[in-house]
Design goal:
heterodimer; A: mainly alpha; Cyclin A, domain 1; 6 helices; B: alpha/beta; Nitrile Hydratase, Chain A; 2 domains; two-stranded parallel sheet; 11 helices; 11% strand; globular; disordered N terminus
Chain lengths: 106, 215
């Protein structure tokens, strides 16, 4: 996107949420362990097209790209992901409630 | 913020029973569900451990622009170190305990006639070992698009007005090659020691969207 026209640079800053830091950590760890490379991350990001940059936040794009690379690498299947995401959704209405399985028993 | 612990049974709740952590008390999003699912599957497949994830977050949280400021201040007071920094910034920052791993780090020096600006037009590559996580604006479409075509206009938005005779050089980072700006030492700082000098070095001055403070 370098060189394209765009508006003023937004200067809002947010503290990184726990889930965002976890996405970042997962990317670093997957790279260290050789599951996929930062080039794989970038390819998946670029494949999303420009709409993704308008509709998704930074770490939303990252988790989508991390997930795509892991599925391609055969770490888990699309079915396993879908089943787990559904299960996570049943744990509670907020990230705090859904973030770990122990939370269900609280 | 009150102390909280990931395994605490009232995660995200204040003592009065109200949620206080913004990231945890809003409605669970599709992408958050994906993060949880991906992390759990990675753990179950034996690819990562929860401890590794927690440790990585701690490492990330411990990095801040203070690392970069210490490197810049050292370069300002020690000409030999400055020469090593400009020669091989990966090695020079490793010397000070800020390891960048296998990545190549290049320090670019601001002078009376050259001002350097760093961007990553592809994504968000950034010298994290020296500056921590990039600010939100660094990752925006606006910054990444415009830094390379109208850097002076972008700099003006950050309050940096450069005289016409100063050449602006824009450096586009890559996954394997990162840049950090070595800002020019401000005038009137001759009597300051290294720690006092480091306090003048801002994050933005090391990205090129700002200048160091003056004493």
């Amino acid at each position: 996107m370098g060189g394209q026209a765009a508006g003023p640079v937004p200067t809002d800053q947010h503290d990184f949420a726990l889930w965002e830091k976890r996405v970042d950590a997962l990317m670093v760890l997957c790279g260290e362990k050789g599951l996929f490379t930062v080039d794989g991350l970038r390819r998946a990001l670029e494949d999303m097209g420009e709409d993704a940059f308008e509709c998704m936040s930074y770490y939303e794009r990252w988790i989508a790209a991390v997930n795509q690379n892991l599925i391609e690498a055969g770490i888990y299947s699309l079915e396993e992901l879908g089943a787990r995401m559904e299960e996570v959704g049943r744990r509670g209405a907020t990230y705090g409630e859904a973030q770990n399985r122990e939370a269900q028993d609280d | 913020m009150p102390h909280d612990h990931p395994s605490h049974s009232h995660e995200g709740m204040s003592p009065s029973g109200h949620p206080y952590r913004a990231d945890n008390d809003t409605a669970l999003t599709y992408w958050q569900r994906m993060e949880i699912a991906v992390r759990e599957l990675l753990v179950e497949k034996g690819a990562v451990t929860p401890e590794e994830v927690a440790r990585q977050i701690d490492t990330m949280d411990a990095r801040s622009p203070a690392n970069g400021a210490a490197v810049v201040a050292r370069a300002w007071v020690d000409p030999d170190f400055k020469a090593r920094l400009l020669q091989d910034a990966s090695a020079a920052s490793r010397e000070m305990g800020f390891d960048i791993g296998p990545l190549r780090l290049i320090a670019v020096e601001n002078t009376e006639s050259v001002h350097n600006l760093i961007v990553c037009t592809l994504c968000s590559c950034y010298p994290r070992n020296l500056l921590g996580l990039p600010p939100d604006w660094y990752k925006t479409r606006a910054y990444r698009s415009r830094a390379v075509i109208e850097p002076r206009a972008v700099l003006r938005e950050f309050g940096v007005e450069l005289p016409d005779h100063v050449q602006v050089r824009v450096h586009d980072s890559t996954a394997d090659m990162r840049y950090v700006v070595l800002p020019a030492r401000p005038a009137g700082t001759e009597g300051l020691d290294e720690a006092e000098l480091a306090a003048l070095v801002t994050r933005d001055s090391m990205i090129g969207t700002g200048l160091p403070r003056t004493p």
